[in-house]
Design a protein that fits this description.
By secondary structure, the protein is an alpha+beta fold. About 40% of the residues lie in helices and about 25% in strands. Bound molecules: adenosine-5'-triphosphate (ATP).
Length: about 500
């Protein structure tokens, strides 16, 4: 664990040093859980958005985009349930004065028991080798069974307490489990209180006619309230989807783990409208499709897992998370939810406007059901960053830090480097740069020894370095260096663009 913490710290400082992520308002000592993306971070973020948009909108004839406003009519948040139910139970430790999400304290406790079970299984695998029957072991081993029962008992108390808003019971669970504050080690807790996560502000110039409005806590509602506009103007037929990328705001109680939990963040959401009764089929379809998307970026399968929800939100009849193994453990990266007709039904009721779809196949109108895929852009960024970061020992004994960002997402695709700053090499390199930059994000660099320039580009994840040397002036060839293998090949200048385009497709 200590190693992973170390690794996480290294990733955070690397992200700052190389212009990926800065603390917001840093010169004023920062603003908690708000971050800015630097020159390389903003490129990576933009590339992730494009990759998502292409796969969701461009490659699906029946999915279209939307860019709805952050400010919306306040009644929308009443209808969606956010005004009344977008709460987290919070609790303070009296000694450390630290604030926690009460349910997360219990969930973390559960995760510890899970880890115990996993350790038990690992030990048994070692002991029994090939003949090991995991299913039977988990079903019969007394220590595993005791721990499983513990988990069940806790869940059977926590989930109903959360559903019924029973804050006293949540406090009691924390007391009964003797959960201590991770900072002070003390068990002196305040009462559990509900905390609404929406930020609000005033709209209107005069205070008398000011109206309280909210900063959207999710982009989904902008899609729901526009569903009929898009359906009619785009003559969309069910099933069809609307995708949107945009900012969302949540006044998170505990904001930690860098860009994993932010107060201002970005979501990439797609709401897929289907015929009632077909939602589970589509829910399964999107679960698979979204997992494939993650794997298409070349991150190993073992880094991802599904977490099917046992406790469903008020709007869902099936829900799962795709979790990623961050340096601090498996955590939610994306949610896939079958939201039924809850949202459209509620907006129909609160607005008094019909949000029905006329189905020409059966000559009937109905409110469609919705399957949602909702992924955090910043969490995807963090997943890619933490998987990409690696330290390598080279044959000559030196070390390099390399960001193995999938080439298609890399902030800079090609570095153009004259071997030396003389003999017309810079001029030739600039000529090459001027052609290449039309199609690819390029960077020209002539300062420092070539080896140091290669290292700098390894550290930001540039997949290809083109070096212009004296031979270039003679025979119009350059070397192309691959970030991961460090192998160099000599190729003709006229072939560079095609070769890079081809490799970026992989
Ligand atoms: P969590 O349980 O971690 O708070 P959630 O279940 O509330 O997340 P959703 O409401 O399902 O999250 O939001 C969809 C996605 O938006 C999440 O999977 C996550 O990637 C992203 N997301 C949610 N909250 C934040 C946040 N505070 N900072 C960054 N990304 C977030």
């Amino acid at each position: 664990m200590a190693n992973n913490e170390d690794l996480f710290k290294k990733i955070i400082s690397h992200a700052k040093e190389y212009g990926f992520v800065f603390q917001s308002s840093e010169i004023y000592d920062g603003l908690s859980a708000v971050y800015d993306y630097g020159q390389n971070g903003s490129e990576l973020k933009k590339n992730i958005k494009e990759y998502w948009w292409k796969s969701m909108v461009q490659y699906h004839e029946n999915i279209v985009g939307l860019d709805s406003a952050i400010f919306m009519h306040p009644t929308i948040w009443k209808a969606s349930g956010h005004v009344d139910a977008f709460n987290d139970p919070m609790i303070d430790n009296k000694d450390s004065k630290k604030r926690y999400r009460a349910d997360v304290l219990v969930e973390d406790y559960l995760a510890k028991i899970e880890t115990k079970i996993e350790k038990e299984v690992k030990k048994a695998v070692k002991r029994f080798g090939e003949s090991f029957d995991q299913e039977q072991f988990v079903a019969t081993n007394p220590r595993v069974l005791v721990n499983k029962e513990k988990i069940e008992n806790i869940k059977n108390r926590l989930y109903p307490a959360m559903d019924n808003n029973d804050l006293a019971e949540i406090k009691k669970i924390i007391e009964d489990l003797e959960i201590a504050c991770p900072v002070s080690g003390s068990r002196s807790w305040t009462k559990v209180r509900q905390f609404n996560l929406m930020f609000s502000t005033q709209m209107g110039s005069l205070s008398e006619d000011a109206n309280e409005i909210f900063l959207r806590p999710e982009t989904a509602q902008g899609i729901f309230v526009n569903y009929l506009n898009v359906q009619k103007s785009g003559r969309m037929k069910l099933p069809f989807g609307i995708a949107q990328i945009g900012k969302a705001f949540r006044n998170e109680i505990v904001a930690r783990q860098f860009i994993f939990r932010m107060r201002e963040f970005e979501q990439m959401e797609m709401q897929f409208f289907v015929k009632p009764g077909e939602e589970i089929k589509w829910y399964e379809y999107w679960k698979e499709a979204r997992m494939k998307w993650h794997l298409s970026l070349g991150i190993p399968k073992s880094k991802f897992r599904f977490h099917n929800h046992e406790k469903l939100a008020h709007y869902a009849n099936a829900a799962a998370d795709i979790e990623f193994e961050f340096p601090f453990g498996f955590k939610e990266l994306e949610g896939i939810h079958s939201r039924t007709d809850f949202d459209l039904g509620a907006h129909q009721k609160f607005s008094g406007k019909k949000l029905q779809y006329f189905d020409p196949e059966i000559n009937e109108s109905y409110v469609p059901y919705v399957v949602e895929t909702s992924i955090g852009l910043d969490r995807t960024f963090l997943a890619i960053l933490s998987h990409a970061y690696s330290e390598e020992k080279l044959e000559d004994g030196s070390e390099r830090v390399i960001m193995k960002i999938p080439p298609v997402l890399a902030p800079v695709k090609v570095a153009i480097l004259p071997l030396m700053k003389k003999d017309e090499l810079p001029k030739k390199a600039r000529e090459i740069m001027d052609v290449l930059k039309v199609d690819h994000m390029c960077q020209y660099e002539e300062k420092d020894a070539i080896g140091r320039r290669y290292r700098r580009h390894d550290a930001i994840g540039t997949p290809y370095c083109i070096t212009v040397d004296h031979q270039t002036l003679e025979d119009q060839t350059v070397t192309i260096r691959d970030r991961d293998t460090m192998k160099q090949e000599r190729i003709a200048i006229e072939k560079i663009s095609g070769i890079i385009a081809e490799r970026l497709k992989k």
